[in-house]
Structure formats: C-alpha cells, structure tokens
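INFO  loader      accepted 1 record
INFO  loader      residues=321
INFO  predictor   begin
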Amino acid sequence: MRAAVYSETGKAADVLHVEEIPRPEPGPGEVLVRVYASGINPTDYKARSGAVPRPIDEFQIPHQDGAGVIEAVGPGVDPGRVGQRVWLFLAAAGRRWGTAAEYTVVPGRQAVPLPDGASFELGAQLGVPAMTAHYCLFCDGPVNGQTVLVAGGAGSVGHFAIELAKRAGARVVTTVSSPEKAALAEEAGAEEVVNYRSPDAVDQIKAFGPVDRVIEVALGANLKLDLAAVRSHGTIVTYAAEAADPVLPMRACMSANLTLKFVLLYGVPMAALEKAAADITAALAAGVFTGLPVQKFPLADIAAAHEAAESGVLGKVVVIP
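INFO  predictor   done
INFO  writer      dumping tokens
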C-alpha cells in the first residue's frame, strides 16, 4: 500500500515521505480499513515535528483520525462488519498505523459505524476534535439549561463543542477573532458570537448571561476574560497547551470558587471515549453535525497538507489517500 511515513521528527518537507510498504493485517480484535479520508489535527503535526515527541517504532504513519470502509477483520471481530462504513479515532495512539495511508488497522471499537448520510470527509473531521469537545462538555454531567462559553468557536474542537452543547440543551456563546470565523460559529449554532478583541467583549458575554462552563483553547491568553464572565462555582475546561505556561491569579480563582480542569484525550478512559463515540454517531445520524470547510490534499502532497494545517488555515485539512 501507499503510505505517508516518517522515521524521525522534523519539518514536514524534511521528514515526510510517501512510500510503498506492506499492507498490515488485522490481529485479534482489530479491523483493516480502506481509508478514504484522513484528517489532520495539531496533535499530528506536533508529534511529527518533535514538539510533542512520541516513540517511533521503526516508522510512523501519521494522523489519528480518518474514515473509510472495513475490508477485513481479525479473530474475535464479527465478520459481518466487513463492508461497513466507519469513522476512526486515535488510530496512531501508541501504534505505527495512522490514517495517512491507503489502509490502516485499528482495534474494532475505534472503528465506529458512519451513518449513510455522513460523508467520509465529515467522518475524518471527528475523532480527536469531536471527542475532546464531548469530554470537555460532559465529564461532569449534563449541560442542559446551562450557559456554555466556547473559546475559538471556528476551530475544530470549538465547532463540535457548539453543536454538541446545543444538541444537549445548553445556551452557547462563543468567541472568535474575525468576521469569517464568526460566520462559521453562527452556522454551527452559537446564539451569541463575540470578537474577543473587542473592548467590550466581556460585557457582551456577561449580557448573554453568567457562564456556567467554559471550553477553553488558550487558557493563558483568555483567563482574564473567562474569570470576568464565569459565574461563582463555574468551571473552565482547557484542552490545549500554549507556548508559555499560564500564570494563575490565585486570589481571583479562589474568590470565584472556580473549578479548573485539564483534558488530554490520550488519557481519557475508554468507557468515556466509547460514550462520546456513541453520542457523536447519534448526532451524525440525526443530521445535526456539520463539518468545517475542507481543504483537500492528495496523499502525494502530504508535506504541503501538514504545512497548511500548521499555518492555521481556516477550516479543516483532509488528505485523500
């Protein structure tokens, strides 16, 4: 099969190559998936660059997320799954077989049925972003009737956080940095969209209502705004690291009786991931999940795809093997 691989970390153009390698075979509990779309997340290019280094077992095929069709199953997996359309999550977590290839093998529970109405390109956008959004929203229980502030509503996690929160009965306000991003957040269903660069951003958020829960992408940059908007005994859940560690204003956090949570998807219990996968698939089947604008690259242009994702391009970068 053709696959994008790297054997050392570095810049995309220096270390990523497309090669012919033996197609993997599914082991016990695994499925072989023909990949039709592979999504790129920050975790993928951070691992490849060495910013967040992970062990490399001879070679690494990048990308955690993707979508395709099951072509074979290993021992212990229902043979009836052959031919099933699926979306994939954490394909490369502790494994060499990421989704930037014509085929990948994953544990069967990490290949989730993809409803007929959902495209492979949408399926490839789920995985890390949608499951992160789900856990950040629901790790403490339901959000029905709550007011949720989603920081960065035009990003992948923010996009799915808006849609999941609305589906769960929450009121949603989100922050963005441009009119183009505001349009995307509005399309996702946010009831109030605020440019966080506006001098009255805090007043706009507070006018929407005291915030119960913040889904935060940049804790250090946004903590002052979050503290001004969140209600007493509110919660801030952050899922992304910044270049510099934030400094916490302890008295302000204490005065707010604030709960601050940190989430990294790789450490989330499998039971919670399976619950997230089930809820995400239900939202897909109901037709309430939408994707971000897609920039598609062929597998041969894998380095350019990584460069586009790293540049912060608006929307989602998807590779077509």
